[in-house]
Design a protein that fits this description.
Distance between the termini: 37 Å
Strand content: 25-35%
CATH class of the largest domain: Alpha Beta
CATH topology of the largest domain: Rossmann fold
Shape: elongated
Helix content: 25-40%
Structural class: alpha/beta
Number of strands: 14
Number of helices: 10
Radius of gyration: 25 Å
Strand order of the largest sheet: 6-7-8-3-9-10
CATH superfamily of the largest domain: P-loop containing nucleotide triphosphate hydrolases
CATH architecture of the largest domain: 3-Layer(aba) Sandwich
Length: 308
């Protein structure tokens, strides 16, 4: 099956010569959740803007369900819902009318039942008659999501959707995202909250300096680039490691009172058992031990740092 989004050698250079995107290639499959991670200025919003038809590319092309986003703008834009970073809404309009108007802008016939369904899913139904200026920042962001869903899009872009939103609202939003994915909607999100990508994304892309450093299945990425560590708090501090432990991933830390060991997750039982036996043979004893596995944030920081 062809990808629902295909980005091919996409570039974007502004008039001042700044290269925002440098040959991006990316395929997104129907029904998946893709998280794009990257620091400010990495090119995430520029990439989304071009796919959504808001900005024009300098080179390359983007296909949405086989349609070119430049040549077939009307066809592709109708398939896409976008939740932007900025809170841009008519402050003196009601929630229900604002969301209904967005549906009409995409050429869809009025459907009050669908608007009600969307507002209820986002816990906005009891605010339907409120003017937007009466809502909190978190509620306004929910309205942006409702507007993006008003015309029943096949693809939903969420550009930093939970920025400034409290924890409770954030969890509600991700519940909605999971329900949308279950219904077949393809979701691409950018986020600074890496734990969200770790929790809900199927694949993770890391972008920095206008380049897509990688796109990987989340589990495969963490298995390939993540580390496992054994942490041993020693009974007595060591001044140095015996020579027989040199070069095997063992590090002495915290003034000689802690050992950390990077080990092979595929062979962890044998690896740890061998180490503990060798430590005992060298009269090195510990009072506590724990293990730690790299998080997606650790991997992200390492990738972005290595790209500088």
């Amino acid at each position: 099956m062809a990808p629902i989004i295909s980005v091919q050698n996409l570039t974007k250079t502004y008039a001042n010569g700044f290269e925002a995107l440098k040959g991006i290639n990316l395929d997104v499959e129907k029904g998946e959740i893709l998280a794009l991670l990257g620091p400010n200025g990495a090119g995430k919003t520029t990439l989304i803007s071009i796919i959504c038809g808001i900005a024009n590319p300098s080179g390359g092309k983007v296909l949405v369900a086989g349609h070119d986003v430049v040549k077939d703008f009307r066809a592709t834009r109708g398939m896409i819902g976008l939740v932007p970073q900025e809170l841009t809404t008519d402050q003196f309009e009601t929630v229900f009318n604002t969301v209904s108007f967005s549906r009409g802008l995409h050429g869809k016939k009025a459907n009050p039942a669908h608007i009600e369904k969307v507002l209820r899913a986002l816990s906005l139904w009891d605010k339907k008659d409120n003017m937007l200026r009466q809502l909190s920042g978190g509620m306004k962001r929910r309205v942006l999501i409702a507007k993006a869903l008003s015309h029943e899009p096949d693809i939903l872009f969420l550009d930093e959707p939970t920025a400034g939103v409290d924890v409770t609202l954030r969890k509600d939003m991700w519940n909605v995202v999971q329900e949308l994915r279950a219904s077949g909607v393809t979701i691409i999100l950018t986020t600074h909250y890496i734990e969200e990508a770790e929790e809900i994304a199927d694949r993770v892309g890391v972008i920095n300096g206008g380049q897509l450093l990688l796109v990987e299945d989340k589990a495969a990425l963490m298995a390939k680039l993540g580390r496992k560590q054994l942490i041993l708090d020693l009974t007595e501090p060591l001044s140095h490691l015996p020579d027989c432990f040199a070069g095997n991933g063992l590090t002495l830390e915290v003034g000689g009172s802690r050992l950390t060991y990077d080990f092979d997750a595929d062979n962890e039982q044998e690896s740890i058992a061998t180490l503990l036996t060798r430590l005992g043979e060298n009269n090195i004893h510990f009072k506590d031990l724990s293990t730690r596995q790299s998080t997606l944030e650790d991997i992200f920081v390492a990738l972005v740092g290595a790209d500088k």
